[in-house]
Amino acid sequence: MYRLRRPAAALAVLLGAGALLAPAGSAQAVGPAVELNVPETAYLPQRETSPTGGVRLWLAPQPGAGRTAQSGVTLKVDASDLDGVARIRTRRACGDHAMGATDLADCALGTLTRGKDNYLDAVYIEAVPGARLGSHGTIRYTFSAPGAEDVVFETDVQIEGPDLRPRKEKPREGDAPGASFGFRPQIRNAGTFPAEGFGLSFSTSRVTFPTRYSNCRYGPEGSASIADCWFDQRIEPGQAYEVTEPISVGVPDTMVNGSFTYRPYLQGMTGNAEEDPGATGTDPAMRPGAGPELKVRPVDTPASAFADKFALGEVRLHTSQTSDLQVRADAIEGTTGSTAEATFHLRNAGPGRISGTSLRITVPEGLSVVAPTPPPDPDNELEWQWECSPIDEHVYTCGPDNSLEPGDTWETTLKFRIDRNIRGARGLLEAVHDPERPANDPKKSNNSAPIEVRASGSPLTEPTEPDPKPASATGERGGSDDSLPWVMAGVLGTTVLGGGALAYARRTRAARRKALPQPTGPTGHGQTSDPNDS
After folding, report:
1. Cα-based angle 226, 227, 230 (whole degrees, multiple of 5)
2. Burial letters for 260-276: b for 16+ Cβ neighbours within 10 Å, e otherwise?
């Protein structure tokens, strides 16, 4: 009988809607009927039972000894050693067994074909309620085939265990667009159990990684660009590590503000989407690097420098690139008692790309906003979301879902009811943005514009409110932070406004977005962008 136990090998796991391939080695046994990559140690989160009844274990067996096919393959999954630690259930080729109802599952796999995804989609596992932190047991996978010796693979399942945390990162200021800089991430094991190797996953929709290391896998540049790296380095409790050489990070030409994140991960059932750099993963877009190996070294960094549990290491970038935000407001025309529409425009004249910017609309005195009527069918609500949110009865914020490329114009149309004819009434339109992502706009004179009212009808009354004053680019008026429109952008439900009007605070698809001719970039029009990147 062959008994193979491969350290740092690959195990594919699907938690919810995300797929995981844990790190793997390339060593293969000579002569076995079946080859299988599984981790020597897998860490199982101690969480509630998922809707599917546990974490799904993807096993991807292949014919052994270089064969193109192997027929008559069966599999026994033995989880008896997990008693009091975890429980499994099976389905499909292994038969339908309820969670924890059996310690031994027999699976008829039939013919395995090399190069084909021979996924079982069969084994689910979860921690037993009350399982002690750090407790563990072994799962054994025994493959049999006619005329061949059995081959056994094993995975030691541990309940949580190490607690890896990234460093708290400070924002970077003044990087030149189109340049690159070196970055050294750090991680620390804040748990009470050692980690047998660890990975780092980098996520970003804008920055690039010019150097492609051999122990990392990379996604395509542009939206949802990812890099996953694995290190066969044991980390003891209280120990911290950093990469031995700075990772090169490329800054896009049009980036004004942006960010990227990194997070550490462990082998096995972590719910992450990392893959072994040398293995064929479930995501065909991920490719291993062809450069040198990225290594790590221990560092003496205090525990206070690291983030809280489950937090990401986030690096915010404030580059020297600039932008020019321009706003324009249509006049509101009508008679007393009628309704009228007006369109408000937000343009990015460049040269930088902008996200996190919205329009703040201060409603002229004597007018009120008529909010869209919610759809009668709750299932269709998302198709009728309103992109505007009330701050109070006189102030609304409206913003685009996507970033504005240089030359883009975004606009939204609001309906107003002319309740009273106020002499000289006018409102204010302003471009405001998240103070953590400043637009770096040196020309602020065109960041605001008056909203004129051309009303007719009687009676004509004198104004009781002063003309609104322009806010700063971050939404401040006269030194007061007033309100944060980017926080309110997601407010849902109904808000009772003055005069009994109801403002249904949902975004709508009715807004129009226009794009002027511009150079083609990695993120196209209409593509949802990372709200942290611009």
Report:
1. 145
2. bbbbbbbbbbbbbbbbb
